[in-house]
Amino acid sequence: MAKRAEKGTMGSFSRGAELWMHQARLFGVAVLTVVVISFLIGLVTGSVYFYKAATPVERYALERNWIGEARDALGMNRAKMELYVNGNKSMLDVKEVIALTEDDATEARRKMRNGTLIGSLVGIGCLILLSMFWWHYGRGKMTDERLRGASLVNGEDLKALVNAREDASPYVIADVPMRAKSENLHTLIAGAQGTGKSQQFFALMKQVRARGKRAIVYDPSGEFTQAFFRPGKDILMNPLDARSPNWNIWNEIEKDYHFDNMANGLIPDPAEADPFWAKAGRMVLKDVYKVLGREGRRTNRDLYNSIAKSNLEAMHALLAGEAGASYVDPVTERTGMSLKMTVQNQLEAFRFLHDEGEPFSIRKWIKEESDSWMFITAREELREALAPVLSLWVDTVIKAVLSLDPVHRERLWLFVDELPTLQKLDILKLALTNTRKYGLCCVLGVQDFSQVYEIYGHDLAKTIISGCQTKLLLRVTDGAAAKLMSELMGQAEVDEKDETLSYGISSSRDGVSVFAKRNLREIVLTSEILTLPDMHGYLVIPGDYPIARVAYEYTPTQKIADGFVERGGLGISFQPATPAAPDMLDDDDDAPPAPPADDGKKADSGRVVIDADTGEVVGTREELSRAKPRSEDESDLEALAEALAGKEDISKDRTYTFKVPPKGFPSRMFHDAGMEIPGFIHVPAGKTLMQSIEALTMKKPTKAAATAAKPAPKKPDPYADI
C-alpha cells in the first residue's frame, strides 16, 4: 500500500494541536454535561425523598431552627422571632425558638441526610449509566452494521445454534456437529500441507468406523491404511502390495455398456485440449477388452502386451472386424501411433497387476452388506505411474454405487485425500451432484485449488468445489486460493460508518461529521486465511447457518497395520552384456549387419507373439508352440532359398530357422525398420514369406503378395451374447 506523503513540521504541529484541543473541548463539554445532569437528578431525587419523608411540622421546625441558629451566630438575637405553636402565633426570643424547635428539627435533619445520601447514590449511578450509555451510543454510531448476507461466529456459537435447532448430525467436524442428514451432501477439506487436514480425515474415519459404516479410502501416503486396515476383513488395492487381490477389467464387466465404463474410467477427457484422442483411444481400448474377452485371454498381462508390445499391424489384426480397427490402420500410421500411445500410456500401470489368486470384483464388493472397508493405496515414488489404475478403481466405485437402489440416507463413505494426485475423474461431477439418493458420502481433500482447476478445467472444478456443501477451509499459501476461499464464504451488505474532521483558526470552524454508506464486504479477508495458525480454519455448513471460525487439537492415531507390504517378484537383476555375433549381408545389401535375436526372450500377448527386446511381432501363440528350436541344417536353408525365390507351398504353416541369413535375404528391410534380424520366421497358411517379412517390418504388402493372401478363417465369438 502506498505511503501517504508526510506534511511539513509546522503543519503537523498545528494540526495536532488544533485537533487535540478540539477533542479536549468536546471531552470537557461532555464531562461537564454528564456531571450537571447527574447532579440535578440526584438533587431532585434527594429533595423528593426529604419532602415525602418529613412532616410539615418537621420541615417548619427545621426552617425556624436554622434561622434562629443563623441569627444567634450573627449576633442578631435581640429581636423577637415569630413562631407558631399549636396554631397560635407567638413572638419569642431567638434562643427560645431554637429550644422549642430542636426536637423536630433534629428529626428533619436526619431525614434530610437520608435524602442527601439517596440523592448522591442516584446521582453517581446516573453519572455512570449516562457515561456508559453515551460511550456505547458513540461507539455504535461508528460501528459497521451488517444488514444482510453471511455472518461470522465462533465454533462454540455455531455448535450451540445447531444443537438448539435440534439439527445436529452424529458426525462432528472440527468439534462442531455437521448438519443432520448432510453427510451425503459431501464434504471438502482444503488446506496447505501441515495445516491439520489429515487430522480431520482421521477424525471422520474414526466416527465412521465406530458406527459400523462401510468406506472406501484413497490413501496416497499409506497413513490411513496403518490406522484402519484390518487384515482378513478389509480389502487393499495396490498393484505392488502383496495383500492386493487378483483384479482385472473383466471382473467388473457384467453388461455390454460396462466395456464403455471401463474404457472411460481409464482414459478421461482432457481438461482443455481436443478430446478426439481420448475418445478414439477409448474406442480402441473398449474393443481390445471385447476381443480379449471373447478369446478367453482375460488377464492383465494379455491386456498390457496386446497394446504395449504390439505394432500397428498386430493391433489392426487383433481388432479385425471391430469399430476400433479403423483407428489403428497401418495405412494411417501417424494417427494410429498417436492413438496407440494414448492407450499405452494409460495401460503402463497394468504391467504391475498380477493375475494370481481368486478373482475380485469391486462391483460385487459394493453390493455386499458388511462393515468391510476398501483401501486404494500407492507408494509416493510410483503414485504418478499408478494414477490411471488408481483412478479407474475410484471411478468403478462411484459407478457401482450408482447402480444400487436409492436409499436417501448414509450408506457408503468415499474418502479421497489429495484429490489432484489422481487423474481426471469425469464421473466425479455426477458423484457430487447425483449420488445423494444412493447414499454415497464423499469427503475430498485438496492442498491447492489451482491443481484442481488444471486437471478438471474451470467449469468442472467449480462444480466439484460447490458440490461439497460442507467445507472446512484451512490455511493456504497461495493468494489466489485464499481469495477463492474468501469468495466461498460469501459477502455481507454492511452499513459502514465514517468520520471527517474540520478545523480552522476560529473554534467555530472546528467540527466532526459522521456519515454512513452501504457496501458489500467479504466476511473473511484473504489475508486472514493466509495467516491462520495450524488446525484453525473456517467451517461452512449447508443451510441458513453462519460461518464459524473453528479450532481443534492434534490427536495421535495408533497404527494397527503396515502401510505397505511389497509383493514378491518385483526385483530386477542385470546380467553382463555379451558381444553380438556378426551378421552376413547379401551381396546386393550394403546395410550394416544386425545380430540375430537368440536370447529366448519372447513376450506372449495372446493372439500375437512379440519379441521382448524389439517389441516386434514374430508370430502367434499357436505359431510359437509349433516353432522349431533354433537350429539350422541344409534342408532349412534350401527351403528358405526356395521361398525367397517365390517357390513355396502357401497351403500350410511354415517355419524357417536360420543362424545366418542366406543370399538374397532382404536384410535391408529389417535395417530400415530399425529391427534386428530374427532367428526364425513363421509364415501362416495363405501368406508368402515376403508378406510375413513385410508385416514384421511394418511395410505395405506388395501387389503380388496382396493377390496371394487369403483371409483367415473367422473365430467363434464366445462374447457374442454380451
Automatic annotation (TrEMBL):
State one molecular function term (GO): DNA binding
Location(s), subcellular:
Cell membrane
Q: Which GO terms describe its cellular component?
A: plasma membrane
Q: For this UniProt entry, what is the primary localization, expressed as one broad class? A: membrane
In Pfam terms, one family for this protein is: TrwB_AAD_bind
Per UniProt, which keywords does this protein have? Cell membrane, DNA-binding, Membrane, Transmembrane, Transmembrane helix
The segments labelled Disordered in the record are: 575-637, 702-722
Every copy of the Type IV secretion system coupling protein TraD DNA-binding domain together lies at 171-551
Q: Where are the transmembrane segments?
A: 26-51, 117-137
Q: In its UniProt entry, what is this protein called?
A: Type IV secretion system DNA-binding domain-containing protein
Q: Which organism is it from?
A: Ralstonia insidiosa
